[in-house]
Amino acid sequence: MNSILMNPPFSANWEQIEDGRFSSYGIAPKSKADFAFFLHGYSKLKSGGTMAIVLPHGVLFRGAAEGKIRKALLEEGAIKAIIGLPANIFYGTSIPTVLIILKKDREDKSVFFIDASKDFEKGKNKNLLKDEHIQKIFLTYQEQKGIEKYSRLVEYDEVKDNDFNLNIPRYVDTFEEEDPIDMGAVALEIMQLDAEIKKSEKELGSMLNEMEVSNGDPKLIQALELTKKMFGVKTDKKVNSEDQITLEI
């Protein structure tokens, strides 16, 4: 075949078998058939043919048998591009996925990385890849264009130095630094808040004092005194000792 598109079930169980499709690369684990589907499709490609397959991110970095398969594929230049897709774009699963582009009998061993995981529109039940997001991925891949925090062409030696780990953040730095804290603005905000608190306390104190003057009930007066102490409000009027009573709280 000249071109193949695959979207197999993710990390399915399978019954391991040995045949020509897997002999040059190894056999995928019983609990994760991702590379079994991968190698099955790749075995059907003609020389110069292209294949695109959607799989979970784990195929990019898991070790053991999958690490050996990945290493063999990279050593022969089979993997042309890795495109990280947004999470929750498929029905039935919310896990983030990756689109892997393969080319049969390719001389170049470089790998082109695209991190499109942040380009989507939030839908009701899932995230949506809009036309503009797809167009950006397509043009970037077609032009093999390096874009800061989005895409990068990585030479084989760098992939080898990373022990054939294809985890996208190793090659495309998407880290966003936080804006520096303006200490002057923070200090000014604290001063303003402190002034507002003092103003509120003063207003509360005036209200409580007015209530004491207008109401001679000893029980209410003592309750107001207790309230002022709790809020640190200065007292203008003392409760007479003969008016003191015990409050049940």
Automatic annotation (TrEMBL):
<dbReference type="GO" id="GO:0032259">
    <property type="term" value="P:methylation"/>
</dbReference>
<dbReference type="GO" id="GO:0003677">
    <property type="term" value="F:DNA binding"/>
</dbReference>
<dbReference type="GO" id="GO:0008170">
    <property type="term" value="F:N-methyltransferase activity"/>
</dbReference>
<dbReference type="GO" id="GO:0009007">
    <property type="term" value="F:site-specific DNA-methyltransferase (adenine-specific) activity"/>
</dbReference>
<dbReference type="InterPro" id="IPR051537">
    <property type="entry name" value="DNA_Adenine_Mtase"/>
</dbReference>
<keyword id="KW-0808">Transferase</keyword>
<dbReference type="InterPro" id="IPR003356">
    <property type="entry name" value="DNA_methylase_A-5"/>
</dbReference>
<dbReference type="GO" id="GO:0009307">
    <property type="term" value="P:DNA restriction-modification system"/>
</dbReference>
<keyword id="KW-0949">S-adenosyl-L-methionine</keyword>
<keyword id="KW-0489">Methyltransferase</keyword>
<protein>
    <recommendedName>
        <fullName>site-specific DNA-methyltransferase (adenine-specific)</fullName>
        <ecNumber>2.1.1.72</ecNumber>
    </recommendedName>
</protein>
<feature type="domain" description="DNA methylase adenine-specific">
    <location>
        <begin position="2"/>
        <end position="179"/>
    </location>
</feature>
<keyword id="KW-0680">Restriction system</keyword>
<dbReference type="Pfam" id="PF02384">
    <property type="entry name" value="N6_Mtase"/>
</dbReference>
<dbReference type="InterPro" id="IPR029063">
    <property type="entry name" value="SAM-dependent_MTases_sf"/>
</dbReference>
